[in-house]
Amino acid sequence: MRKLVVFSFLLCLVAREGRSQGNFPYWKEVQALRQKDSLAFPAPGQTLFIGSSSFTLWKDVQDYFPKHKILNRAFGGSTLLDMIRYRYDVVFPYQPKQIVLYCGENDFAAADSITVEMVVERFKTLYSLVRARYPLVPFLYVSMKPSPSRVHLMPKYEAANQQIMDFLKKQKKSAFADVYSKMLNADGSPMEDLFIEDRLHMNAKGYAIWKKVLEKYLVP
User: Do the beta carbons of residue 93 and residue 43 sit within 8 Å?
Assistant: First the structure.
């Protein structure tokens, strides 16, 4: 287990050394966010949303949480490895009041060979890097959701969600938001009406469930 952590840490260091080459996934999207920051750098004390497309496509997230100032720096359909690679671009530049992460679903979708243990170790590596930078900032992880197009991956999502939740219970100023169970029918299948045509990304009804869950955890 420790070897996986060390390997992930070395991987992220190597990735940062080569990131200027522009040959990594989502390079253009991340550079667009950096350009946006250069024009008007975000004020400190905001709630920083980071992660993959479920946050990336939540364009009106501020409307869901009017009492909170949301800074959305999610990009593409990123994986935890992408988050590690681009942490100096979309996580570390800011002075957030709270960090909210949705990521991990795409890690499993990348290849059948990706195991629960691998994804959990990736999460722990990212968490340790974030904690080294922000030791006192509240951290919230949003559980992987049950996407209808990825029903075959649901057992892995469930196992990884459980392990991440157990891990975070032992960490200070950290929490786990369970949206997974709120998006299931009584028989355990995903609620199809929460998703758009691709059966992967959510519609307003799906985000309404997320709002109800997340607002309990957001720092006032």
Answer: no
